[in-house]
Design goal:
- There is one protein chain.
- By secondary structure, the chain is α/β, with parallel strands linked by helices.
- Helices cover about 45% and strands about 15% of the residues.
- The chain has a domain of about 210 residues: D-Maltodextrin-Binding Protein, domain 2, CATH 3.40.190.10.
- Helix 2 packs antiparallel against helix 13 and helix 8 packs across helix 9.
- The longest helix has 22 residues.
């Protein structure tokens, strides 16, 4: 397996162009080696860190041997992969055979990828939840394959919180009794939507129904929690809130499975920290689905080989290896009675309650509106009802830039999805 990485700044606007220009060169060089060895090549763009890329190389080695192929991995960010997909699919000439995309990008990526119905058998379908397949499906056709799915659970300090909250009422009582020890990822980014939407869904609300009684009830609850949240909640993201948990300044927060792996690496799980279900609301429990999906671009040079790789991936054995060797907990639960079963108990318990955010082309605009509403209620003086009403309404105060104008004026985003 050959790995290439772009060393440009992670969020630079030049990275997408660098990917489009540099990846074909890197793949060409790798392909020369492949031709010299008499092997075909499969070019995959994944959003992985260097340590993950090394472990992924071991994971694909059996496929390389069985199919006499070299897997050439281009490690990039999701945003750069999406940009490369759009450029290459538009020209119908590309270098990438498989691309990994974040769930929130599927609506925008859909025009540039091929349908995959032929490789999803009933046994394959059973590997993942209905919510996972719903996000991958448009007009009854499957265009994306779950690759490393995950969802959130509650991460808690078992020494300070021997009986973790099971309901909204218990969570509110905990927050009042221990000010500053409950945290929410409140920075203005998608993580804030993931944290808040678990409460919205568990009250019967929805992204495209901000005016519903359930959405209002959830925002009323978040407003009630806000005075007792950790003071840094307004800037917390996944890693910063996890580090606060590791320091002991936060006792409860909501995060993805990697959080447990991180705490375990620090010697804090299971000795200090564990996972538990997200507290149930008036409508039950809910947790946001996250993670990456694989797709075959319409411009893929080796689409048949790409399909063979997806078939290799879509087995219980392969999914178990991804969970065990890369820490991508998702489709296969840890063996009962194992240490991992204890560590990931909260995530296993939440599996039946996973929900996907809508795979809409306009999802970024919808998410931005929710982010503003969440922050206005948690950290501002906005009333929940007013903040929710603004989500699907034009907001003149944000008309200063073209991007903000497009964000606020696109009223068709949720048309027909919710009453």
């Amino acid at each position: 397996m050959i790995v290439t990485q772009n060393s440009a700044p992670r969020h630079s606007s030049h990275r997408a162009l660098a990917l489009i220009l540099a990846a074909p060169l890197a793949i060409c060089l790798a392909g020369c080696r492949a031709r010299e060895s008499g092997r075909a090549r499969l070019n995959i763009a994944l959003a992985v860190f260097p340590s993950e890329a090394a472990r992924y190389a071991k994971f694909v080695s059996a496929f390389e041997t069985a199919h006499h192929v070299h897997v050439n991995l281009s490690a990039q960010t999701y945003a750069d992969i999406l940009q490369a997909l759009r450029v290459q699919s538009a020209s119908r000439r590309g270098s990438l055979d498989l691309v990994e995309l974040d769930l929130a990008m599927l609506g925008r990526a859909r025009p540039g990828v091929a349908a995959l119905d032929d490789i999803v058998s009933p046994s394959v379908h059973s590997l993942f939840s209905e919510a996972a397949w719903a996000a991958a499906t448009t007009n009854q056709h499957i265009y994306f394959i779950p690759h490393r799915l995950m969802w959130q659970a509650m991460v808690y300090n078992r020494l300070k919180v021997p009986n973790p909250p099971r309901t909204w009422d218990e969570l509110e009582r905990f927050a009042r009794a221990h000010p500053g020890k409950l945290a929410i990822k409140g920075a203005r980014y998608e993580g804030a939507v993931c944290d808040a939407m678990a409460f919205v869904w568990s009250a019967g609300g929805a992204e495209c129904a901000p005016g519903s009684p359930g959405s209002l009830r959830a925002f009323d609850f978040l407003r009630a929690l806000s005075p007792d949240l950790n003071d840094e909640s307004a800037v917390y993201r996944e890693m910063s809130v996890l580090e606060a948990q590791a320091r002991g300044s936060v006792w409860i927060h909501f995060n993805w499975p990697f959080a447990i792996e991180y705490l375990k690496s620090k010697g804090l799980a299971p000795a200090v920290d564990l996972s538990a279900p997200i507290p149930a609301g008036p409508g039950g429990m809910a947790t946001p689905l996250g993670g990456g999906y694989l797709a075959i671009p319409v411009s893929a040079p080796h689409p048949a080989l790409a399909r063979e790789f997806l078939k290799y991936l879509l087995s219980r054995q392969a999914q178990a290896r991804l969970s065990r060797e890369l820490g991508w907990y998702g489709s296969v639960a840890p063996p009962a009675g194992s240490e991992d079963a204890t560590l990931y108990a909260g995530f296993t318990a939440m599996r039946p309650y996973v929900r996907a955010r809508p795979a809409l082309e306009c999802y970024p605009q919808l998410s931005n509106r929710w982010q503003r509403a969440i922050r206005a209620v948690l950290f501002g003086a906005a009333a929940p009802k007013a903040a929710l009403a603004a989500i699907l309404s034009p907001q003149p105060g944000h008309q200063a830039s073209p991007a903000a104008a497009a964000d606020d004026n696109d009223q068709r985003c949720c048309a027909g999805l919710e009453p």
